[in-house]
């Protein structure tokens, strides 16, 4: 079970279409869910993210551990049975309590938080697709 | 002047819309052009990419130098006046002759070559936008 916890809806609609496309592909291999957090403030967002966590929490963070596609595939498949909650922060980042979780990084570059969702889904898709995960 | 040389059209249409959106934003700051290479074969593609190069060639490659957004911003702005030709390979990668160029990397992970275009345009946009480039 993979869950991606992130604040707000995926915008613009082009990214939402790509998100739905990758979710459809990934669902052939595993259960995956996007948990969108609706919050009134930064503090509220932090509390709601923490409350939403059910499985092993992993924060996607520019300063986290860098994986190759192959390394990420191993990491994902090794942890899948226990369930993983990946957290993607919003435009203002995440609070200190969330920053204490294990952090993995897609890039040393900072990307738009909506684009990151698609990049990450593409990587999850690759992890399951034997054509791409090596 | 920034040129991005890459094989084939940007697909699906959602990525093309995002590409056009970022190009429109970046053009407020600099000249930028996407050079799409139409080729009959891998060899033909390699030759046409080499022929298309006019400025300093930089290959986007998973094994290239990793930059943060801040480092990439400096690199881009320092080289902009001379003109830069960024090369993004297709699904089969690039030939040995192109692999000899300076290589920079957006991530240690491999991404879909069409998605990479959007990720890279987003990074160029960030480099020019004072809200994001630090």
Nutshell version of this structure?
Chain A is 42% helix and 24% strand. By secondary structure, chain A is of the alpha/beta class.
Description:
2 copies of one chain form a homodimer. Chain A is of the alpha/beta class and 134 residues long. Chain A has one domain: Alpha/beta knot. Chain A is 42% helix and 24% strand. In chain A, strand 1, helix 1 and strand 2 form a beta-alpha-beta unit. The longest helix of chain A is centred in the last third of the chain and has 16 residues. Chain A starts with a strand and ends in a 6-residue tail after the last helix. The mean pLDDT of chain A is 95.
* Overall number of domains of chain A: 1
Catalogue the unreliable spans of chain A: none
- Cross-sheet strand order for the largest sheet of chain A: 2-1-4-3-5
Largest sheet of chain A: 5 strands, parallel
> Which fold name is given in CATH as the topology of chain A?
Alpha/beta knot
Average pLDDT, all residues of chain A: 95
H/E element sequence of chain A? EHEHEHEHEH
Query: Under the CATH scheme, which architecture of chain A would be assigned?
Result: 3-Layer(aba) Sandwich
Helix and strand content put the structural class of chain A at: alpha/beta
User: What's the total number of strands of chain A?
Assistant: 5
CATH class of chain A: Alpha Beta
Largest two-chain interface: A-B, 25 and 25 residues
The fraction of residues assigned to DSSP E strands of chain A is 15-25%
